[in-house]
UniProtKB/TrEMBL annotation, chain A:
Residues 628-730 form the Origin recognition complex subunit 3 winged helix C-terminal domain. It comes from Podospora bellae-mahoneyi. This is Origin recognition complex subunit 3. Belongs to the ORC3 family. Residues 67-364 form the Origin recognition complex subunit 3 N-terminal domain.
From TrEMBL, chain B:
It comes from the Eukaryota. Component of the origin recognition complex (ORC). The keyword Nucleus applies. Residues 141-150 have a biased composition (Low complexity). Belongs to the ORC2 family. It is found in: Nucleus. This is Origin recognition complex subunit 2. Residues 82-91 have a biased composition (Basic and acidic residues). The gene is ORC2. Residues 155-170 have a biased composition (Basic residues).
């Protein structure tokens, strides 16, 4: 009965379009002492009154506080055995890691557009006078590429920048094709936003007030008066997705701007996904003649993505490593679905959220010193011992004969805690080496692969210059370099060692002994090579190494009108040999600087690596068709009921009506006779079957099922034959 | 032909489950064409079939067989054999059958009539013949598995010719086709084989009956506990959802079943356990997208009143929120993919709202095609996380008008006034000449229906020309001017008891959204 009351209370609200949800009293359960209530709450005013009246008796306040606490905290893992402080620690770690990264990404994105913005603003500011002479409308064509999701950010930035520079005089109006259907609508928008966007300016009768007179709300005169009152300035109208606009509308608007050019200074901007040529081909010639344009290119999405990955995924600021598998998947999705960078950032954020929210071991990510031993409880240690990397580490120790170490790890909790505390330092060390290797590999400029590919490969397989063929197969390229190239290479490598790579936030090798030794070594090498160049110059020979290509190729020489083919076996001079030795030396030393293990080899890498596809895929790229099909074809998967257990994807009478109809539907042809459908349905559930439902009840369920099928878009009305419906989905 | 109906229904009950093991529709007409002598073979049987009361049958066993086989299933299937010739044959057959019956009833046979009768009989038998064959063949196919078994047929019969000249036969549709192949297979012209059964024998549900029965049924749902358990699983992920909302993602819950209750519980949860970033002054607005009367203005108004923003425009609300950083708003939107919210402007407004940092959105969707609602710009604004939230809950009456929806699907249109009674009710309140006009209209439509031939089922609406009706109305002094005529029609339009449309030539046509039986009933009521 209580349930019925609840639903009837719902219904009042359910028929409303929108309503404010007022918090139900927490004591509902007490007053309405029915434990079977499926719906705990009853909204609406009467409930509220009740709350006030019972405040003194039921004393719900402590409960409320406790609940609040619960809401603010993350659920405890290990089946609730996790200590609150550990859960809190995870939360704090998340809250301290992600925002850093987020601001980093934001600045990368802002930087990416900065140059374009500068150019556009420059154009709008400078060319005005020139254009005025010709009486044309200045137009900026901004090539944004096919990703319209990125346009929003660009144009909002543009608006901000213009507002900043224009000192409040200029106006920036953004038009989107979806919002502007016709000329009047467009003008209304321009006038309204041009006048400062105050809705209050327009009266009930749709007129604008300006300078004591009233204008129609699509009259540009109103805007002119307003602009004059403000002391001039420009109105910049941006067509955000120009291709989506009706060409005629663009023409008409531009024509109007042109004819008003002597009174209001209009400039237009077009966001173009394809190319200016294609866009111009769509415009009328008269329209094109009224425009005076310049073209601006936005940094392409791929480049932006790469810099985001460098900063936020690979860089030192990233606490959590996105595993190679997931990263590959994310990047591929970026390319295949033309999703904006925003989608990538969201995925990244979700990975962080997932890791800290659902992985109890993420608490171990805190720096070693801070990781209080109290936090670590026996469940943590047990979980650590279940890790794949733990197992392989122990096995490795046994193989190496370090039996004590393995035994202690398995049995001694304190020993394990010590190890766990040390892994933070190890992680830093590993990351340092990884980034150093990557930075150096990039510095050689010999790798043909993009940074993302290199990074993925490094995590996946480790970095090893010997591996050939492989992503880090640089040996040949380095050895074949000419003396000048080698010097350039050495210089670049030294810069990287000293200064690091700013886009990775890697600060170089610092001032340790290693760094000094490396610098000294490279200095010496450079001096050697420079000296060799000098000497060979004096001798007027060209310096080469035995690896350089010239020594191997065939030479064709024309001697006395005869072509001679000769293998160039020019013997290497003393300097050449010295240079070869220098190259070998360089490469050997370079190899010591570059190289790292695959990520998965590291002890406890699960603590700081996230490489799970599953939640990501479901959450960002849902497959609703498959989900619906599964729910309908195998309800047992969801309901776990005893009655439909044996169905196993086939059709039995106990299934929900919609599910039975779905089964029949998937067997039916393109056109379905409802009479037959009903007959078949009734044969399954009707009086002659095991279910034994009477006809009218079966019909009610049949109706419900059919209505649901329709709401889900499976069927529609068909006029071909009486009582027939048409199939709409082939799954 | 009432006796055949019963066999029909039995067959119909079988049809959808069994793969249609029927014959190729195309072979029969050709047989007729090629081998007219064969018709003679069943002459006696056919005659016996039609008027067995008068003519003695030489082969009784044969007769039984023809009755036992579900003749009509294939024989009278207009879609099976879409050739025009065949349809012509059909109606010729019908006419001849009538002629035969008439002749027998009247009992008078003159010489020329006898001759006519012979022709009629011949036409009738020729089609009887083909039905016979189909029936036979179906029997055979029923015995042997539904594979092509032309060899089973009597040797030496015209099989050879037909197998070579007919299109390739496929009694069973190929199994396990990928969806797109299946689409093309099922949409092949001439392949839709559905029976001619209609729901006319079934008393459709009225709203009252539906509601009274559904209330009992929902409490007796055998899956009730399982559904509750499923819901409890969803409830257990509320903390996660709240966390995701607080991280400025929007949620989109999809999957089969009504999610209205989940949303409601989630609202309760959010109000009692607000996540940190949702401030203390978090306002929760629930929007029912399934409500047909939803408008953008109303939506914005309720949002504005929730945050107590002075303006009700979108930019106004957003700037108000920006200036009041402590106010946060959670929008819980039921059925974001409902037909009433599918306009692009709606979605872009919701997405703009959702993209504001202080607005949190959680919406549900009931159809699997929701992803098509959003282009990439709108989608980026939403920042959706999708969760499978299959509930198996049935939809409440507020969410889904089951009876209306089904009747609309069937083309019954009971959303208008309830059939005969409704019309009577409407007409009672109208002046006398309106009644006469409606009577005229019904009569005309029924006449047109008769004239059209009996082949039309209820699926097709019979239309009459506007001009013709007007002329008749003037003749009968129902109205004197077109103006008055229009006014009367307008009244009918308002009550949705007539519909009008224009045909390809631009002629205005009027039609009545009722079945033939209903029309007859209405006419009866009006004339008495």
């Amino acid at each position: 009965m209580a349930e019925f009351d609840d639903t009837s209370l719902f219904q009042e609200d359910d028929h409303r379009v929108a309503y404010m949800f007022t918090a139900p009293p927490i004591t509902t359960a007490a007053t309405n002492a029915s434990p079977t209530t499926t719906t705990k709450s009853a909204p609406g005013r009467p409930a509220k009154r009740r709350r006030v009246s019972e405040k003194d008796t039921a004393a719900p306040l402590p409960a409320q506080e406790k609940d609040d606490d619960e809401g603010r905290q993350w659920p405890r893992l290990f089946n609730g055995l996790e200590s609150p402080s550990a859960a809190d620690l995870r939360k704090k770690t998340y809250e301290s890691t992600w925002p850093v990264l987020e601001s980093e990404i934001e600045s990368v994105l802002r930087d990416a557009n900065r140059q374009t913005l500068e150019e556009v603003v420059e154009f709008l500011n400078s060319d005005v006078h020139e254009c005025e002479g010709r009486g044309r409308v200045p137009a900026g064509f901004i090539i944004t590429g096919p990703n319209i999701a990125g346009q929003d950010l660009l144009f909002s930035q543009l608006g901000d920048v213009l507002a900043e520079r224009g000192e409040g005089r200029g106006r920036f109006v953004r038009l989107r094709a979806g919002e502007v259907g016709n000329l009047k609508g467009g003008l209304k928008r321009i006038v309204r936003e041009g006048m400062g966007g105050q809705e209050g300016g327009g009266g009930e009768d749709g007129r604008m007030r300006g300078g004591g007179r009233r204008y129609l709300d699509y009259d540009l005169e109103a805007l002119r008066v307003e602009m004059e009152g403000r002391g001039g300035g420009r109105v910049v109208v941006a067509f955000q997705d120009s291709e989506a606009f009706d060409t005629g509308l663009v023409g008409e608007l531009v024509g109007l701007f042109h004819s008003w050019q002597d009174r209001i200074q209009f400039s237009v901007l077009f966001g173009i996904a394809t190319s200016v040529e294609l866009f111009q081909a769509r415009l009328l010639k008269t329209t094109a003649r009224q425009l005076y344009g310049a073209q601006f290119d936005v940094v392409q999405a791929n480049a932006v993505l790469e810099s985001v990955i460098m900063a936020a995924v690979a860089g030192t600021k990233a606490q959590l490593r996105i595993g190679p598998g997931l990263l590959r998947k994310l990047v591929r999705r970026q390319q295949e679905q033309v999703a904006g960078v925003g989608a990538f950032v969201s995925s990244l954020k979700y990975a962080y959220m997932n890791h800290f929210y659902a992985n109890p071991l993420s608490a171990l990510l805190v720096d070693g010193q801070k990781l209080d031993k109290e936090i670590l409880q026996s469940e943590h240690l047990e979980a650590v011992r279940m890790l794949e990397s733990f197992k392989s580490h122990v096995e490795q120790s046994v193989e190496d004969g370090r039996l004590d170490h393995a035994r202690l790890l398995l049995e001694n909790d304190d020993y394990l805690k010590g190890r766990i505390n040390r892994q933070a330092a190890k992680r830093q060390q590993y990351l340092g080496k990884l980034l150093q290797s990557l930075a150096l590999v990039i510095a050689t400029e010999h790798s043909k692969r993009s940074f993302v590919e290199l990074y993925e490969a490094a995590l996946d397989e480790g970095i090893s210059l010997d591996q050939s063929p492989g992503p880090f197969d640089l040996g040949d390229a380095i050895k074949r370099s000419t003396p000048e190239e080698l010097i350039g290479l050495i210089k670049r490598v030294m810069t990287v060692i000293v200064d690091g790579n700013p886009s990775l936030h890697w600060n170089g090798m610092g001032i340790g002994q290693d760094a000094e030794a490396a610098i000294d070594k490279f200095e010496a090498l450079r001096a050697d090579v420079e000296r060799l160049i000098e000497t060979s110059k004096k001798k007027k020979t060209s310096l080469k190494s035995k690896y350089s290509s010239q020594s191997r190729v065939l030479r064709t020489t024309v001697v006395a009108q005869k072509v001679q083919l000769s293998r160039d076996t020019a013997t290497l001079t003393e300097e050449d040999n010295a240079f070869t030795a220098a190259i070998d030396d360089f490469f050997a030393f370079f190899k010591t600087l570059v190289g790292c293990e695959p990520l998965s080899n590291l002890f406890l890498n699960e603590v700081w690596q996230y490489d799970y596809h599953l939640p990501y895929e479901d959450v960002f790229v849902p497959r609703p068709g498959a989900t619906f099909a599964r729910a309908l074809s195998r309800p047992h998967d969801y309901l776990g009921c005893a009655c439909c257990d044996k169905a196993n994807g086939s059709m039995v009478g106990t299934l929900p009506a919609t599910s039975i109809l779905y089964h029949l539907y998937s067997e039916a042809g393109a056109s379905i006779n409802v009479a037959d459908l009903w007959a078949a349905y009734y044969a399954l559930v009707g009086e002659d079957s095991e279910i034994g439902m009477d006809e009218r009840s079966a019909l009610v369920l049949f109706y419900q099922g059919l209505a649901e099928m329709r709401a889900m878009g499976f069927v529609k009305q068909s006029k071909k034959k009486a009582d027939h419906i048409a199939k709409l989905k082939w799954l | 032909m009432p006796p055949k109906k019963t066999t029909n229904q039995k067959a119909a009950a079988r049809v959808p489950r069994k793969r249609p093991a029927t014959t190729d529709p195309y072979e029969i007409p050709e047989e007729d064409e090629i081998e007219p002598p064969k018709r003679r073979r069943h002459a006696a049987t056919a005659a016996a079939d039609t008027d067995d009361a008068t003519v003695s049958t030489p082969s009784a066993s044969r007769l039984k067989k023809t009755v036992a086989t579900p003749i009509k299933l294939n024989g009278l299937n207009g879609i099976d054999t879409p050739s025009r010739k065949n349809n012509a044959d059909r109606s010729a057959r019908r006419k001849s059958a009538r002629a035969l019956v008439d002749r027998v009833i009247s009992g008078a046979i003159s010489d020329d009539e006898a001759e006519e009768g012979d022709i009629a009989r011949e036409i009738y038998e020729s089609s009887e013949d083909e039905e016979d064959e189909e029936g036979e063949e179906e029997n055979l196919n029923g015995e042997t598995e539904p594979t092509t078994t032309p060899s089973k047929f009597a040797p030496g019969r015209k099989r050879k010719t037909t197998t070579t000249r007919t299109r390739k036969r496929s009694p069973t549709p190929p199994r396990n086709l990928p969806p797109h192949e299946q689409y093309f297979f099922q949409n092949k012209p001439g392949l839709s084989k559905t029976s001619n059964n209609t729901l006319s024998s079934l008393q459709l549900l009225t709203h009252d009956e539906y509601f009274s029965l559904s209330r009992d049924l929902s409490s007796a749902n055998p899956h009730k506990t399982d559904i509750t358990h499923l819901a409890s699983l969803h409830v257990s992920s509320f903390p996660q959802w709240a966390f995701e909302l607080s991280q400025s993602f929007s949620l989109c819950l999809y999957g089969y079943g009504s999610k209205r209750q989940i949303i409601h519980k989630f609202a309760t949860y959010l109000s009692s356990h607000p996540p940190c970033s949702l401030g203390q002054a978090n306002k929760i607005v629930i929007i029912n997208g399934y409500n047909p009367s939803i408008t953008i203005r109303e939506l914005l108004c309720s949002v504005a009143s929730a945050v107590s923003s002075p303006t009700t425009t979108l930019p106004g609300i957003l700037s108000y929120l920006t200036t009041h950083p402590k106010t946060t708003l959670t929008i819980l939107l039921n059925s974001v993919s409902s037909p009433y919210l599918r306009k692009g402007s709606f979605q872009s407004i919701i997405s703009t709202l959702a993209s504001h940092a202080q607005v949190y959105l959680c919406c549900t969707t009931d159809s699997p095609d929701f992803a098509l609602l959003w282009d990439s710009a709108v989608g980026t604004n939403f920042r959706f996380l999708y969760h499978d939230c299959t509930t198996f809950c049935s939809y409440s009456p507020s969410e889904m008008e089951v009876v209306d929806s089904v009747h609309e699907l069937l083309g019954r249109k009971s959303r208008r006034v309830g059939g005969k009674e409704g019309v009577a009710f409407v007409l009672r309140s109208l002046p006398e000449n309106a009644k006469s006009l409606f009577r005229l209209l019904v009569g005309e439509v029924l006449c047109a229906d008769e004239g059209d031939g009996q082949g039309q089922g209820q699926g097709e609406e019979i239309s009459v020309e506007y001009r013709m009706v007007y002329n008749k109305a003037v003749e009968e002094f129902i109205c004197s001017s077109e103006m008055a005529f229009r006014t009367l029609l307008k009244e009918f339009h308002d009550h949705q008891i007539i519909t009008s449309h224009k045909d390809a030539l631009g002629t205005e046509l009027l039609s009545l959204p009722f079945g033939k039986e209903e029309l007859e009933g209405i006419l009866e009521e009006l004339t008495t």
